[in-house]
What we know:
Blueprint: H1 8-74, H2 84-90, E1 99-107, E2 112-119, E3 126-135, H3 139-149, E4 162-170, E5 173-181, H4 188-194, H5 199-217, E6 230-231, E7 240-242, E8 248-250, E9 257-258, H6 265-269, H7 282-285, H8 295-314, H9 339-348, H10 363-375, H11 386-395
Antiparallel strand pairs: 1-2, 2-3, 3-5, 4-5, 6-9, 7-8
Helix pairs in contact: 5-8, 5-11, 8-10
Amino acid sequence: FVLFFTDDSHKSEEKDEISKVTIISLVPLLVISVAVIVIFYAYRTHKKRKLNKAWEKNVKPRKHKDCSDVCAIMLDDDRSDISSTCANNINHNTELLPIELDVVVGKGRFAEVYKAKLKQNTSEQYETVAVKIFPYEEYASWKTEKDIFSDVNLKHENILQFLTAEERKTDLGKQYWLITAFHARGNLQEYLTRHIISWEDLWKLGGSLARGIAHLHSDHTPCGRPKTPIVHRDLKSSNILVKNDLTCCLCDFGLSLRLDPSLSVDDLANSGQVGTARYMAPEVLESRMNLENVESFKQTDVYSMALVLWEMTSRCNGVGEVKEYEPPFGSKVREHPCVESMKDNVLRDRGRPEIPSSWLNHQGIQMVCETLIECWDHDPEARLTAQCVAERFSELKHHDKLSGRSCSEEKIPEDGSVTTAK
Length: 422
């Protein structure tokens, strides 16, 4: 027999050599593959950037043009008592304007409002404007409102048109002026006191109010530009103006708050319990706001809006018998109730303004009632948003079930009695 002996160590060396050769052969292939992939993606990225630049060049200018068109519509002369041309010129005027004060048309906690004439050049022509005059002591309120109005993104057809702000020295001392559009119909409370409204009027007034608040609360403009949300914090019928076309515009931003992302919880906590007690939401009366969530501030505005919608509805001839105007909660509280009095009514008794059964006989008004009930819910998070209310009013346009003429221009007789359309 012949025996053959193999050397295992020699075989192992051969295998290692083969592995090394294989690896050395594959490395260039892998490097080439990676290089091809990198080059491919670099090409794709470069091509995409070129397409984006071309898109920006061709599309974005059109977008800005559309935005300007929207803003031009918002400042259209048909929707305001002062021309857009005048407003655009005034906003850049650094000198004191040639204004002649006429009569006092309103008084508030912080200022008086005058009807005034804004003279045009040297001619006898003039524009009618409103001038809100703050005394020296109310500088902080003037500055707050001026800063709110100065935000170009605030412009909206349902927010009072701002012209300019001025500091003036008079015989009575230093004064601070805000010059705005003038609306001859006055504030909503005065208008509802003097007039009975139709369903169409209610739809226009309520829908425009909701749209104004929705824009105030929004974090973007109708054009899509970023915008800092603002809460009014003193919504009530006397802080809402009625325009010639029977739509609303918001005014009086002296207590308003910009919900800037940089605000801390402490900043929000220090903003205080503000507003008018009659219109304060339960959580404001109780000083139990959720400061961790800025949406909670918007929810207080929605509660106040619900009370204003109730005021409108109470003066609509679609509800049957129309009683004399009463503010929310009417005779249940005194004329100027304090916070403690409203706590008893709203918190302890869970009271809300009465909704008579006759209001539910009209399909559109029934839907308004359902909406305002959801808006004044005791739980802030259960309330609708202003945008949702605006959308609901848009859907209500086709629910006109009234018969008879509109009483929107019918004056209340001198004896205070009220008549309804037959």
